[in-house]
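Sequence in, structure out. Go.
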Amino acid sequence: MKRQLNYFILVCFLIILFPGCTLVKASLRQGPTEPVAKIENISIPSITGKITVRVYTPEGTGPFPILVYNHGGGWIAGSARKYDKLCRYFANKIPCAVVSVNYRLAPKHKFPIPVEDCYAATMWAFNNARSINGDPARLAVGGDSAGGNLSAAVCLMAKDHGRPPIIFQLLVIPSTNLSSLDTESYRMYATGHELTRRDVEIARALYLRNVADRFNFYASPLLAKNLRNLPPTLVITGEYDVARDDGEMYAERLKQAGVAAWFYRFKGMGHIGAYWSVASEAVQSALDGAVSALREAFSK
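Output:
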């Protein structure tokens, strides 16, 4: 009975956040799917198993800069396939090679496995850059929602391990502190918007192994004591998103540590992941900002 209840809660959560919700259905109807020169699905090794990455290559001769993208979905949902439109968009607009990561999902694969998978994919992109017509000297990571959390953790992990060299991180509506869901934005927008505080509580319980994991800075990057020497960072938040303050506080802490970091608060929006994942016109200004920031980082 307990297992059935847990899976019932999980299914309800997925319906709220992803394919079944009205927000996503509306977003999927907006705009065409852009063609790209090449798409490959590649199996790569991770620390405790194998994962797949989907590599998007734009038209042109290259070598292209590389964006490793980690999808959203509360650590328990989402896939590279569901982020196909966004990755095509970035590949063409920047242009760059996009490595979209199918990291393993909780609750079957709990923390730290998703983080390790995303780090392994970033290392793979760096080590195999030439095979995907990419430039290993121009490597960035990005992600939204849970993927933003994972991308921040990957940069911390890369700093701790001394590799790979990451020149930029794009963190969209990231949750950066799973130890406490008690910021002003969590209190003000706990209900009534796309993502509720209860949704995050459920996702956190399914993702982490125990309460102690909440305080691990690879799960809660905001708790990292040393944020120096991290790559330049753009954080995009939603005005009515419960995780808004998480992202903005992380940007401020990065700046205090001497990192070139800034945040863009998207007015009138909540948790924009559903619109973002399909590059909807509803988030065009945020997409434009992300493309401009990545172009600038890759041009240096």
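Check: DSSP finds ten helices and eight strands in the chain. Residues 2-299 form a domain with the Rossmann fold fold (CATH 3.40.50.1820).
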